[in-house]
Each structure stands twice: as C-alpha cells, then as structure tokens.
Amino acid sequence: TPRIFSGIKPSGGLTLGNYLGAIKRFVEMQDGEHETIYCVVDLHAITVWQDPAALPGMTREVAAGYLAAGVDPDRSILFNQARVGAHAELAWLFNTVARMGWMNRMTQWKEKAGKNAEKQSLGLFAYPSLMAADILLYHATHVPVGEDQKQHVELTRDIAAKFNHDYGCEFFPMTEPLIDGPGMRIMNLRDGTKKMSKSGESDMERINMLDDADTIAKKFKKARTDPAPLPETVEGLAERPEARNLVEIYAALSNTTPEAVIAEHAGAGWGTFKPALADLAVEKLAPISAEMARLMGDPAEIDRIMAKGADRAREIADPILARTTEIMGLLR
Ligand code: TYM
Prior knowledge:
The protein has 14 helices and five strands. It is mainly alpha-helical. The longest helix is centred in the C-terminal third of the chain and has 30 residues. Ligand 1 binds next to strand 1, helix 1 and helix 8. Pfam families: tRNA-synt_1b.
C-alpha cells in the first residue's frame, strides 16, 4: 500500500502557507487507501538556533495544529522526530552516501546561508540528508509538500538511487513528491515575489494559524496589491504576483480553482474582494485556532499522543534501519 510521510518544523508559529501547502492536505489524505505518517521535525528546527526554553512549546504547537485541523492520531501516526532515534541514525548513514556537491546546489541552503556559509551549522548544510532519512526510514512512497520542498524530495530520490546502486540492492523506493492544486506556494502579503514563511521579518507579511479574526482582516486589508481590479480571466493575473496570490489563497481555502474564483469575482475591486477573502479565511481558520488553543492548554495530553505515535513509528522504522546497517556491513 502507498505510504505517505510528511513533516513540519517547529521553528515558529504555523502560517497559512503551512496550512494550505501541507496540513490541509495531510488531513484529506487520511481518507484514502494509504498509511499516513506525520512528524514534527524538531531535529530540523535546531539546525538554526532555537531557545531550549521555547522549543517544547513550539513542538507542541505544531502537534496541536495537526490535531486541530483534523489529523486523527488513531488513523495517522503523529509524533516528533527526536523521539525516534532512527531518524538521526539513518541520517548519519546517508551522510556517507550523499555528496557535498548535491547539498551545495540546494536553493534553500543557498538562500539561508547566503554569503555566510562558513558561519552556518554543519546540520543546516546536511539538512536534506536528515530529510531523506525521515522519508526513507518508512519507505514512504509519497510526500505531500509545498513547492519549496520539491528539490529536497528530488534529492531524497538521488540518495535512494545512489544507495541502491552502491550496495547493489533495490532497498529504498523512489519517493514521489505530491504537489498539486492551488496553495502550493503562498506568497508574502507585502511582497508577492517572496514566499510566506514562519520566520519573515514582519508579522504583516503572513497570516498565522493563531491570528484572531480582526488581525486576519487587517492583514488582508493592508496586503499589497496593484490598483487594477480582478481581471476577466486567469491569464490576466500573469504579471500580477500579489493579485495572483490572493486569488490562489481564495481558491485553496474554498477548494476550487483560480479559474472558478475569477469567474465569480471578475472585475471586482480590492475593496470588495479583500473583505470576502478575509471572511473566508476566518471561517476556515477560526475553528482550528480555537481548537489549537484548547489543546495547548493540556500539554501532557499532546505529549502522550506524540509518545504513542513514536512507539508506532519505531515499529516501522527500526527494522528498516536494521536492514540498512546490515546491507552496509555494520555489525550491531
Ligand atoms: P516547513 O516547516 O518549512 O514547512 C512545512 C510544510 O509547509 C509547506 N509550506 C508552504 N506551502 C505553501 N506555501 C508556503 N508559503 C509554504 N511555506 C511552507 C512546506 O512546503 C512544507 O510542506 N524541510 C521541511 C520539513 C521536513 C519534511 C521532511 C517535509 C523535514 N523532513 C520529510 C516532508 C518530508 C520544512 O522545512 O518544512
């Protein structure tokens, strides 16, 4: 059976980008004929500095986001990465398979390291190797992610292929990224050429899953746009990144397509479209943020769910790690 794996870093509050590009789809995928495994990737978060006093709360917040949106801990395996030691172990083995040049070509590494590569942690450089371990530890066949993670999933395939080739086996699968529909690349509300991210400088550039209704309305109202009204067809959005982004958000939130949104709102001015978008976002997010807040009031319950998920994850992961070490000739 197909097996889905995906993860989210607890490196800041969850955004609308995380919701539309990831969590919303994770929930939908539980309904199909596949196993679903969802992780809070705390070992990835610490590749840049995290305050140890704040990290547990952020890890629980991401877990609460999954649960509040509808990830069901009985149907899916939900856990945090640090609880399953095999992730770090397989990542080490993959560090001996992956090549420096592959890591050097990663656009996220280039963006994050900038001109300061020498000052970055070795973990940030090897980040994709740990991500490949996350995925391949479960022999996951499909990985739902936003557009920004596509290159990392392709690198996962490169690592699997080189391992299989070097050790003369067909052990690791060629995992497919699942990136489709609107919402796979939500942009910053102040600059339609940049991605909406947890860690952007200004809070006005993103919608957080925990924002209240007034904040959401204010952020959409202040969102940058050009002055022209919505076009008559989607082609008219081509050179208008901010307008295109708001239409995409509307389409993703209402489970339709940009074409359908334009058909309904052709010629509308921002004074009409932005409040409609804000209302829609509040309608979808308010119940989730209320449930997140409730769940975060009981951290022990979140920890219990993640610990139980980790037990189930280990049952799949440990035999795959054991077989990997055996293939590589390591005595254990
Ligand atoms: P992270 O924590 O940055 O983001 C989590 C998920 O949200 C998606 N996403 C977006 N989608 C659309 N528009 C946006 N603006 C936007 N911002 C974020 C991301 O694409 C991702 O799907 N490296 C990963 C975490 C990871 C992982 C894995 C993912 C670690 N191991 C194994 C899949 C499988 C990351 O940093 O995601």
